[in-house]
Amino acid sequence: MGEPIIEVDGLVKTFHGGVRALDGLSLRVPAGVTYGLLGPNGAGKTTLIRVLATLLPFEAGTAWVAGVDVGRDPAAVRARIGLAGQHAAVDDYLTGRENVEMVGLLYGLTRRETRRRTADVLDRIGLVEAADRPARTYSGGMRRRLDLAASLVGEPAVLFLDEPTTAVDPASRRDLWALIRHLVDRGTTVLLTTQYLEEADRLADRIAVIDHGRLVSEGTGDRSRTGSGPPWSS
Question: What are the start-end ranges of the E strands in the chain?
Fold first, then answer.
């Protein structure tokens, strides 16, 4: 494994009512791997992703992404990451191509470079034939792929995927798995949250189990959990 590209130490995030979504969480993610986060609903997985993606402030601890301090320089972090959340962030009234190009322009790319990268990611994501159709005509699996294409147009060093295959059909899930493996082969680091044990086993080089905002266990798939049930059930 390479040097950490994500480093989290003692991270604390509290919501109203005193609920600690992250309770002193610490972990390291090596560069060039898929790192899976497992845990039940409310464990803190999405909160961690949102903190690392600069969408939520935190109260204590430190977080570094791609060599940048998340708390001190969030703009520099955003220039180095891509994010695909639990729900596809797609504008139904734009075409697939226009959705991706819009994100490229938000990254500050020139129009020429935006067009070049958009064509590339649409090809990699398998949406070339549908690229000029309105996104409202896309199936659920196609919308997830479009969301992922938009997150890739900035050529991020780190890609955050928050339950990317929830509510997609099995064929689309397999397509997304293949794409994620391809991205990692090309050097992207993927931090993936999922509730599917099979998905974590298929994709993740390392797996962390978190619950109540704390790290429960960490390792490769067969070492990070025991027994036949979910790793947080015991």
Answer: 4-15, 19-30, 34-38, 60-65, 68-69, 81-84, 158-162, 189-193, 206-211, 214-219
Q: At what angle do helices 170-185 and 111-125 cross, to 10 degrees?
A: 120
Q: Which of 98, 87, 73 is nearest to 153 (CA)?
A: 98
Buried/exposed code over 26-49 (b: 16+ C-beta within 10 A; e: otherwise): ebbbebbbbbbbbbbeebbbbbbb
The per-residue pLDDT string of the chain (234 residues; one tens digit each, 9 = 90 and over) reads 557 999 999 999 999 888 899 999 999 999 999 999 999 888 999 999 999 999 999 999 999 999 999 999 999 999 999 998 777 788 999 999 999 999 999 888 999 999 999 999 898 888 999 999 999 999 888 888 898 889 888 889 999 999 888 767 787 778 878 888 888 888 899 999 988 888 888 889 999 999 999 999 998 865 554 444 555 443
Q: List, in sequence order, every residue forming a beta bridge with 13; answer none if it has no partner.
A: 22
DSSP 3-state assignment of 156? coil
Phi (first) and psi of residue 101, to 5 degrees: -60, -35
80 vs 152: CA distance, rounded Å: 11
Tokens, residue 81: 């990451």
